[in-house]
Amino acid sequence: MLPAHQLTVRHYEKKQKLSFPQLRGDVAIVQFPGDNGSALCAMAMEASGKRMLVEVDDNYLSYGDELWMKRAAWSEHIRGENPHSAQGHRWIVEHSHGVIVTTRALAEEYGKLNDNVHVCRNSIDPSDWPKPEKRDDVFRIGWYASVSHDRDAVMVRSALSWASRQPNVEIVNIGYDPAWGFARRQVSWTDNFISQRKELCRLDLGVSPLVSSPLAKYRSDLKALEYAMGGAMPILQSSEPYWEWEDRDLAPTCHTPEDWMRVIKWALKNRDAVRHCARQAREYVLAERTFKTEIEKWREAIGS
């Protein structure tokens, strides 16, 4: 069989009519495709008069951050050591009927290959979230992250180390374990979102550090949404992913490790202000960042 990037619709013209028994309607949305199977599916759908849209929440078009791509089991070229490749992804994106992305930075990048790009921001379902309840006087500062954020630890390590030595303060790492040598509580990564949300609902502060890298600007503000829904005030890196938060006075933003130290010291001295910001952040998410507020953008993308 020819490699997927060399196949064209004519290879299906003499075949029997293809069927997609699991497809509802005439549009399929495929998440971050970069393998031969997805390419074949795109051409089969084209031949059958159906449409396929690509959906991504990170930039898979280039191999600019080799460490990140290897962790995600991607290679640079088709026929690389991994089934998914940046080269294959570019081909699929270029030949799909449209692309759905989560941020304006991704829209700009994917718009170079496909002129039908739609921004559907990350959003939450309020019914997923219990009401935040603080059960004691301990002030909890949490960092909720996957291992892909390991390089970001340098931004907050000193500030969280200082905070761990203050009375009635607990540092909580949820997911990624940075192996810090100071007092903290480690919550292991789990795919049980109910357990994760319970931990987030115990936090007073949620930190989102981010070191500049080739792919960092393409991340989304999902962690800020989750912290806010848990009743915690987000503290965010001053960077492209959090541009919508910077002018709303809902969450402090930081540039340097020194900024992180200053803001966390302020938070421990102004706990009532922290709780007020947390309530406002949650109200913002409920008003503007739920499935209900984003659904029309998804309908526009599917109908495009």
How would you name the CATH homologous superfamily of the largest domain? Glycogen Phosphorylase B
Mean pLDDT: 90
Rounded radius of gyration (Å): 22 Å
How many domains? The number is 2
SSE order in H/E notation? Answer: EHEHEEHEHEEHEEHEHEEHHH
Q: Rough shape? A: globular
CATH topology heading of the largest domain: Rossmann fold
Structural class by helix and strand composition: alpha/beta
Q: How far apart are the termini?
A: 33 Å
* Assigned CATH architecture of the largest domain: 3-Layer(aba) Sandwich
- Per DSSP, the total helix count is 10
Q: Report strand order across the widest sheet.
A: 9-8-7-10-11-12
Please mark out the parts with pLDDT under 50 across 5 or more consecutive residues, or reply none: 1-14
Overview of this protein structure:
It is a single chain. The longest helix is centred in the last third of the chain and has 18 residues, at 271-288. The protein folds into two domains: 4-123 and 295-303, no CATH class; 126-288, Glycogen Phosphorylase B (Rossmann fold, 3-Layer(aba) Sandwich), CATH 3.40.50.2000. The protein is globular, with a radius of gyration of 22 Å. Helix 1 runs parallel beside helix 3 (86-95), helix 5 (153-164) runs parallel beside helix 8 (257-269) and helix 7 crosses helix 9. Mean pLDDT is 90; it is low at 1-14. The protein has 304 residues and is α/β, with parallel strands linked by helices. The chain has a six-stranded parallel β-sheet, sandwiched between helices. The chain is 35% helix and 17% strand. The chain has helices at residues 36-47, 66-71, 86-95, 104-110, 153-164, 193-200, 222-229, 257-269, 271-288, 291-303, and strands spanning 27-31, 51-56, 74-75, 84-85, 98-101, 117-119, 139-145, 169-175, 185-188, 205-208, 233-237, 253-254. Strand 10 (205-208), helix 7 and strand 11 (233-237) form a beta-alpha-beta unit. The chain has ten helices and twelve strands.
